[in-house]
């Protein structure tokens, strides 16, 4: 019998379906019936029949119509998400226009081409804001357009404005391939292109820019295939598809229509200015719409934001594993790290102390092995500051490059209204973000590589002193055996994906573009690597929480108990073998939503504001000579 897994309010529910000709609406109601079962207040739902909800597929994030037949839109064992009207939904559930929650006022981000950050761009992609231009940006756009109008009127020869693109204006060619970018990523791409045009060096008209902003704010998004850019002359292919939809050609997506022919999307019936772009814009504005590194950079912005989120949560997860494996915090002593003062290394060591200091956060688990004879821990625990630290520093380095690129003019030619001239250059070349994103993938992958080894230590009874594969009745139950195999497989895939794409270059455009960055693939594979890292760390977090079960009634530190409680709010302890994929997905969702970080952060901040880290009870195996106590240790700031 076909079965579907439905996510409702942090719970995963299996819904069997005898008749796949039933509708998505039926599936949603069946899931709601299971959700309210055994809840004293029915989960706040008075009537399943009258409850309004939205359903989407987890894979691809496509919205499903309540009247769709299950057999037409889902496959056996598919995962879907259901959001009840009025709920505060996960940001990742928002492929629709800003203001989905009608109880909140619409917020705007003002774009000027100079101050947008990767965090802002990521939030724009999630649908948290609409956008508008600053008055200064509008003035610059008008000035640069006036210069180009003069050039066109005087019939001067300027690349891409009076030459080269006339034929393109009369011919529509699908130049990219592959699946379309998700609505969230297309929103980021469109927002970033608007930000670059707002700098006033592209020559686009203010009317065209306003039309693009209207499309963004209404979430009417072009069909942009994910493959097809070599990252030189900008991301010509995907940006051409972005412009194509704005012309009323090809496909578009909107919250009300889903994917449909652009000319039928309601937005175009209400905004004649957009439809007119097909006839007029490309004659002198075509290159301004499609020339730049925005595909690489928008995907890179998502990559660096997710990388930053997983890196700091990796410290929390590793700290919980160290507790379960009864490790020591001596290796996180600040004096050790002051002798090798890399910022990331010091930050990670402090974070471990913030979570594990038993003087500040009493830990019964730590006390239980205080007088053990172990001298030091394995590298996967002892060297976390060094391994996690370089990932942290790399992310900061890459974020700086991406933020610079976000606010850079990457067109060709450049329009300098104040000088009254246009100049051809090479700012469109994607080597900067390409190299940075290759570096990001390599660094962040190491978080999964070391995590997989910690999972091995948790599952191996010879190393953990816990039941084999963290389950009782081993043999009858396999526990975390296959979960560890999954983590190992993901790490292995990452090793291939971490090969730098930017070391390759193929000459294109009849050797005019004779060196390219391959930045599009660098960005896409960086995101794949980061997703795998998130999934591996989700498995480690599950395993560490399962390990805690075998140490009860002993308790760990307060912040780590809060992390344990968070996991147990979505996943039950592992008693016997069960379908594990929903558990991994549920914890993966916690990581994506940064809930692991959010629950521990207040404790980390409070500790670091009151204590200089590292005051765990001294182990008798730590040899030291009598000497005056360091004035930097266990100092409390009143």
Automatic annotation (TrEMBL):
It catalyses: L-histidine = trans-urocanate + NH4(+). Residues 5-79 form the Par3/HAL N-terminal domain. CDD domains: PAL-HAL (cd00332). The keyword Lyase applies. InterPro entries: Aromatic_Lyase, Fumarase/histidase_N, HutH, L-Aspartase-like, Par3/HAL_N, Phe/His_NH3-lyase_AS. Belongs to the PAL/histidase family. This is Histidine ammonia-lyase. It comes from Anabas testudineus (Climbing perch). The gene is HAL.
